[in-house]
Write a structure and sequence with these properties.
The protein has helices at about 5-10, 75-95, 100-110, 155-160; strands spanning about 25-30, 55, 60, 115, 120, 125-130, 140-145, 145-150, 165-170, 180-185, 190-195, 200-210, 215, 220-225, 235-240, 250-255, 260-265, 270-280, 280-290, 300, 310-315, 320-325, 330-335, 345-350, 355-360, 365-375, 375-385, 390, 400-405, 415-420, 425-430, 435-440, 455-460, 465-475, 485-490. By secondary structure, the chain is mostly beta strands. Among the domains are: about 1-40 and about 445-500, no CATH class; about 310-445, Prolyl oligopeptidase, N-terminal domain (Methylamine Dehydrogenase, Chain H), CATH 2.130.10.120.
């Protein structure tokens, strides 16, 4: 089996690699060595083709390998074939040099002995986590006036059982209490627990919850999600009063349509908690008043087929709505109060067929958009007074950038995360008025010199005429005519592959 050089890849017909309606990005990484032998005589096993007709949604397709599906893991025919695959793999690797130890040693050499995450400010405290080479899980801390305090060390519990993880740490609005959700078995059914200001556990647990912990504005209630016990779809929203038992919790919303799944969110003004009930092409948001969480949630905009939307609550009480109604790439409009959310009274960012709006956040004087244009993500800043816009420029040809850690709607800066094949994840801030940009945090990688590498971006035309972007990263001094290549691409569920370090 021969290795393909970049030169040879470029000469091949792109139709061999791209299927109809291709929408995904390929990542090509040129490597410096190859262990595959050109005189390999092994013959891989070939599974029998047994046509199986599958009909759904008015469509009929043939799956020749459906017989390989064995949910019980007990079919002798399937198990015998898998043994042949394993035997072939063992022989293939036996005839080649084993670089596993060398590769593992190189990866370990690039990992720092200890790492501190980006520190997130909430009130007078900074929240962060730290992990060392001796730990399996990060330890969670907070600091005030330079004094560092340990919130919880999950490694202690992990040492007494086979599996343990903490999904999130969420302080109350006044930082007097800290809720966290942990998982003892990896099934993502979390138990919410609460620590006091001395980091002692309260006698208060909420079991079998889904993702998300949200505090009421008076710090007395926790809003959380539960899953349907059969479908495991998150479909119930409860309010728990701190200090009471879980059987006293109030169900404030249940979704009965099994096509819809619930996610919880919170406005950056902390005024509302969002119940976002969504399926692929439709959603509906209900608003919980953080000051009165037991009241009936208010529907923002009624659900409708082929209509998706998100909300941003502004400090002046208005809402900025991101909607794809008659706007496939989304538009942004302003609604002046909670009772007019479906009325586009002031369009801030019109629909653009060439620019997809992925996300938006609002400050007092600026609207910040997360966009994608020509396949590349970007950040756009719109001044509300005159609707002039500025798009951030980056030096790399291919990269990934997204809005991050923008929790304070009254901040004078906004924050974003940036990475490229030659730059580890970096957190930046930019002043909203003068555009001064600061590098606040970067993931540390040892024994790595980005100056040795280069990244370029090219396009391949698929057979349906769509131009598909390709990112190529390699050592600057490599011979591209003979170097082997690692070829990787992914495309499904409307997901665009992120070009990261």
């Amino acid at each position: 089996m021969k290795c393909l050089s970049l030169k040879k890849i470029e000469s091949l017909n792109p139709k061999l690699f791209l299927t109809k309606n291709s929408s995904f990005i390929f990542l090509l990484i040129v490597i410096a060595s190859c262990t595959m032998s050109s005189d390999n005589k092994l013959t891989p096993p070939s599974p029998e083709k047994i046509p199986y007709v599958m009909e759904a949604h008015g469509d009929t397709r043939i799956d020749n390998y459906y017989w390989l599906r064995d949910d019980t893991r007990s079919d002798p025919k399937v198990l015998d074939y898998l043994k042949l695959e394993n035997e072939y793999a063992d022989k293939w690797f036996k005839e080649r040099t084993d670089y596993k130890t060398q590769i593992l040693d190189e990866l370990i050499s690039r990992v720092v002995s200890s790492e501190t995450s980006f520190k997130v400010k909430k009130g007078d405290y900074l929240y962060f986590d730290e992990i060392t080479s001796a730990d399996q899980l990060p330890k969670y801390y907070r600091s005030k006036d330079g004094v560092k305090e340990l919130i919880i060390n999950p490694n202690e519990k992990l040492s007494t059982q086979e599996y343990y993880s903490i999904n999130s740490i969420v302080p109350s609005s006044d930082n007097s209490l800290i809720a966290f959700n942990d998982d003892d078995n990896g099934r993502r059914e979390f138990t919410i627990k609460i620590l006091n200001s001395d980091y002692e556990l309260l006698d208060d647990e909420i079991t079998k919850t889904s993702y998300g912990i949200f505090w009421s504005s008076d710090n007395k209630f926790i809003i959380y999600l539960k899953k349907d016990p059969i479908t495991l779809i998150a479909n119930q929203v409860y309010v728990h009063e701190v200090g009471t038992t879980q059987d006293e919790d109030i169900l404030i919303y249940k979704e009965d349509d099994p096509e819809f799944n619930i996610n919880l969110g919170q406005s950056r003004t902390d005024k509302y908690i969002y119940i976002d009930t969504a399926k692929t092409n439709s959603n509906e948001i209900r608003l919980i008043d953080s000051a009165n969480p037991k009241a009936e949630p208010k529907i923002a905009i009624d659900r409708g087929e082929d209509h998706l939307y998100t909300l941003e609550h502004a400090n002046d009480g208005s809402f900025y709505v991101r909607s794809n109604l008659n706007a496939p790439n989304y538009k942004i409009y302003k609604a002046f109060n909670i009772d007019s959310l479906n009325e586009s009274l002031d369009e801030i960012a019109a629909h653009n067929p060439d620019v997809f709006i992925s996300d938006h956040i609002i400050f007092d004087d600026y609207l910040i958009l997360e966009i994608r244009e020509n396949g590349l993500p970007g950040i756009q800043k719109i001044k509300l007074s005159d609707k002039t816009s500025t798009t951030l420029a980056f030096n790399d040809e291919s990269y990934y950038v997204s809005l991050s850690y923008n929790y304070d709607s009254r901040d004078s800066d906004f924050y974003y995360s940036y990475s490229s094949p030659t730059q580890p994840v970096t957190i930046y801030s930019q002043d909203l008025e003068n555009a001064e940009t600061k590098n606040l945090w970067q993931k540390e990688i040892t024994n790595f010199n980005p100056e040795k590498y280069t990244t370029s971006r090219q396009f391949i035309t698929a057979r349906d005429g769509v131009s598909v972007p390709v990112t190529i990263t390699h050592l600057k001094d490599i011979n591209l005519e003979s170097a082997p290549i690692l070829f990787y691409g992914y495309g499904s569920y409307g997901y665009t592959h992120r070009v990261l370090f």
